[in-house]
Design goal:
37% helix; BTB/POZ and MATH domain-containing protein 3; five-stranded antiparallel sheet; BTB/POZ_dom; single chain; alpha+beta; TRAF-like; elongated
């Protein structure tokens, strides 16, 4: 029996990369008329310029390069002006229109690279260009010649080849520890130059770091009416634990962990990321212009929304212009209306935010209309002789309308519109 035992060994790979190194040079000839008559084959040279490790020059022949053309044409060439063998390059010569119309005369090798490939210059002095670049009579009556001056723009692209093989060695880069380092400054109180007093507690921080992160602190310390020499600030309407959590975010750019505590000075207080804490942290983020922290709080509150917290979160979202969180709370409250209405949070909304009741009814009514029109994914339920739409007790909806009307003294246009819409369901005459 013949057994084939192939040893494939170690596989490898590489790639060849061809690319051009480009450079440009502008060449101006003043006193063109004085250069005429110097004879065929005689040229005016630009200064040398370097592209791709080689020197180049532009040669302008006012009487043409070839004797047989009888000085009827001007010739222009780009020459290799340094030692080199088989230098492959692309070229472009542009005679500039000096009338401002932008009608330049362009001869480009770059456009024809796919047809014929780069031009190969065998040795020093090899040239690329045009013996009959422009008929001289036409040139002298054109917009290319102005005040006895010609201007040219030259581009050279030297072709290079390199081979890339597999990378056998790599150096791993650790993740950024800037946040940890800055947080250490906060916890160790190293170099602190500002003290915040909140009730009986104090917090030390760095004005520059606070100003870099918060536009409110920036204005307070370094704005037009700010005081850079301020060394103490008393804050009100914010809990110490919330301010501490906000400082942790400012320094570390991470959402405060479930529990943060230190044993250094006034930073020893402990806080937890309960829904109530996140709600207060969102308010603080909005107050001090910390947009990223505000969005992080929105995301956390969205994850933790439930029948007990949705009403207060809805009120908070409305107050601090959190459009996405507000929309989510409205939909959740509408889908669990009967339970939500029995919470303390809903009573707070009734007393302080009557306009939200109208928006809640808008959400309920929109869902109801969608169901009546056969909205996908919605089911109509009936139990105990009462009507229920997407799980909503219509009696609860009626109670909201009554509460909103009373709060707005029956003059709210939204409430009147809701009464008309809910009349479709037989709740109002």
């Amino acid at each position: 029996m013949l057994v084939n035992n192939f040893d494939h060994g170690i596989s490898s790979g590489s790639k060849s990369i061809n690319e051009s190194v480009n450079g440009s040079h502008d060449f101006t000839i003043r006193g063109y008329s004085l250069a005429k008559g110097m004879g065929a084959g005689k040229y005016i040279s630009s200064d040398t310029f370097t592209v791709g490790g080689y020197d180049w020059a532009i040669y302008f022949y006012p009487d043409g390069k070839n004797l047989e053309d009888n000085s009827m044409y001007v010739s222009v060439f780009i020459a290799l002006a340094s030692d080199g063998t088989d230098v492959r390059a692309l070229f472009e010569l542009t005679l500039l229109d000096q009338s401002g119309k932008g009608k330049h005369k362009v001869h480009s090798h770059f456009d024809r690279a796919l047809e014929s490939g780069p031009y190969t210059l065998k040795y020093r002095g090899s040239m690329w260009g045009y013996k009959r670049f422009f008929r001289r009579v036409s040139l002298e009556t054109s917009d290319y010649l102005k005040d006895d001056c010609l201007s040219m723009h030259c581009t050279v692209g030297v072709v290079r080849n390199r081979v890339e093989g597999p990378k056998h060695f790599t150096i791993s880069i650790p993740p950024s520890d800037m946040g940890q380092n800055l947080k250490f400054l906060l916890e160790s109180e190293t170099g602190c130059d500002i003290i915040f007093r909140i009730g009986q507690e104090t917090f030390k921080a760095h004005k520059l770091i606070l100003a870099a992160r918060s536009p409110v602190f920036r204005a307070q310390f370094f704005g037009l009416v700010g005081n850079p020499n301020m060394d103490q600030v008393e804050l009100k309407d914010i809990e110490p634990s919330i301010f501490k959590a906000m400082l942790v975010f400012i320094y570390s750019d991470t959402f405060p962990e479930a529990e943060e505590s230190t044993t250094t000075g006034s930073m020893s207080s402990i806080y937890t990321t309960s829904t109530n804490m996140i709600q207060h942290l969102l308010a603080a983020a909005d107050r001090f212009g910390l947009d990223r922290l505000k969005q992080l709080c929105e995301a956390k509150l969205c994850e933790e929304v439930n029948t007990e917290t949705v009403a207060t979160t809805l009120s908070l979202a409305d107050q601090h212009r959190c459009a996405q969180l507000k929309a989510i709370c409205l939909k959740f409250a509408a889908a669990n209306l009967g339970v939500v209405m029995r919470t303390e949070g809903f009573k707070y909304v009734e007393e302080t935010c009557p306009s939200l009741l109208s928006e809640l009814l808008e959400t309920v009514a929109a869902a109801a209309v969608e169901e009546r029109s056969g909205g996908e994914g919605l089911s109509r339920k009936r139990s105990g002789g009462g009507s229920s739409i997407i799980g909503l007790d219509l009696t609860s909806a009626a109670q909201i309308v009554a509460a909103a009307a009373a709060a707005a003294e029956s003059g709210d246009a939204n409430v009147r519109r809701m009464r008309r819409r809910w009349a479709l369901f037989g709740l109002f005459g």
